[in-house]
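Hi there, hope your week has been kind to you so far. Would you mind checking whether the tokens look sensible for this chain? I owe you a coffee for this, so here goes:
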Amino acid sequence: MSTGQGARVLIIDDELQIRRLLNVALQAHEYEVVQAETGIQGLEKASTCLPDLILLDLGLPDLSGLEVMERLREWTTVPIIVLTAKEREETKIEMLNGGADDYVTKPFGMGELIARIRVALRHAARTAQEPVLQFEGLTLDLAHRHVELGGKRIKLTPTEYDLLKVLALNAGRVMTQRQLLQQVWGKHHYEAESHYLRIYVGHLRKKLEQDSTRPQYIVTEPGIGYRFMERKHSD
């Protein structure tokens, strides 16, 4: 999979103007672009051109965006970024829980979209879990379960560490409350533990953030979940 210049991006959107705008912007950043204007056409092109990333509009004329994504997820783990004009939190949560890697709301800034694409491609390229995760001022040693902030060890409880690990491994991506609860507390018990998530995020912020009321590492996505700051990278 290509992670930067030359990566192939499939746009599935029925609005010609949006496709043209995306095509120009993506090619300017040296991405290869493939276009589809319906869900069926998008599914066909996804199977034939094998894109590195898919931009999927929710408002397609034939299939719903969720149905397209469900059918894609039957055979591919390619990153999917949803383009939505809908502001409803329930819609965003449904798409993220259904397999989307991220979303942007129309009208969106092209700079933000390009940044989201880069994050998704880098995340997808990590085929093996790295033993050490580096962030601005923060280091997670996964092999030894150590966390350092500004070069000093930070003491975390097992649950705090597990939550931080899940967030850090998905850095730059929106993680819904359901996804975090399932991965930290388990698929069968997460509903009973749902009230703990906000508490443990608060604990982590007090230990990691200079100002827990203005967090830099763990950012709240209102009504949806949380997004951890993007990792350091060399590209």
Summary: The radius of gyration is 18 Å. DSSP finds eight helices and twelve strands in the chain. The helical segments are 16-28, 39-49, 65-72, 89-97, 110-125, 158-169, 177-185, 194-208.
